[in-house]
Amino acid sequence: MTLLEVNDLSVSFVQNEGWFRRRRMPVLQQLRLTVNTGEVVAVLGASGAGKSLLAHAILGILPRHAEVSGSLLYAGERLTPQRQAELRGREIALVPQSVTYLDPLMPVGRQVRHAVKRGDKREAQRESFRRYRLGEKVGRQYPFQLSGGMARRVLVAAATASGARLLIADEPTPGLDPAVMREALGRFRELADEGCGVLLISHDIASALTIADHVAVMYAGTIVEIARAADFTDEPAGLRHPYTQALWRALPQNGFAPLAGAPPQPGELAHACAFAPRCPAATEACLHELPPARELRHGLVRCIHAS
Ligand SMILES: Nc1ncnc2c1ncn2[C@@H]1O[C@H](COP(=O)(O)OP(=O)(O)OP(=O)(O)O)[C@@H](O)[C@H]1O
Ligand code: NI
Asked: What residue ranges are annotated as transmembrane (predicted)?
């Protein structure tokens, strides 16, 4: 069953410049993505690609100067701002990227219990604390008394104990030791196997691939490819977009080949293929429009040359 459907989602930030001029800066362009129940979909991309903005758009927590177009459906139902507010934290839970999302004035155990919307709150908190190796006395502490890694574990504990059906985890693992990281990723996989949908945002392809079914690759504000996780295990030729292939070659086991250059600033190449300046396959035609998203080999690609 389709849990989340993102259709042609675009986001721009509108800035006032002086008295009369307003500048629109496109930051997300025509995103299309689905998350089914039982699935982990990884969203990969470099810093600034727009991963967190996608998460915030789904949850309805973008800043006020954001202009949003396109549609979002949750279990077939339109996600309006009001519906987002109703579902946030109940049906749709976020593991936020920053530990500043914790309430500084509330003991963290209470925050986790607060997040639990189904069943016995105390038991759910105890269980998730055990799972993420948070001692019992940690529950009585305030966020400022915790290390960064502990605070992060509290965020994962709160979201995974919430009982939500769609879990959006925004870079949930940096700073966690490898055992806790495996535990957290394993828990996301388990929740998917129990019928949830998981959107896992990450920089770390290798660890995301250990649990993902599908991978959406973002570059400069758009999704350039949706691949199956299995497409990453063979030759890069199985991947559809030159950027995804470059990411694959940059993995240690595939030769660590770095990709020269950097992505453009948001909005800088909105009407072209933003990857063209770094792409070995680019031609003049790549600079004329945002390449349309098209289906290719059970996936999706935005590249006019992909075949
Ligand atoms: N409130 C805002 N106002 C203006 N621009 C913003 C705002 N928030 C984000 N941006 C811009 O939008 C782009 C995407 O940001 P986003 O946080 O989604 O990136 P990300 O892929 O999550 O990166 P990271 O991996 O570093 O978390 C960035 O270029 C950022 O500068
Ligand atoms: Ni982010």
From this structure: none
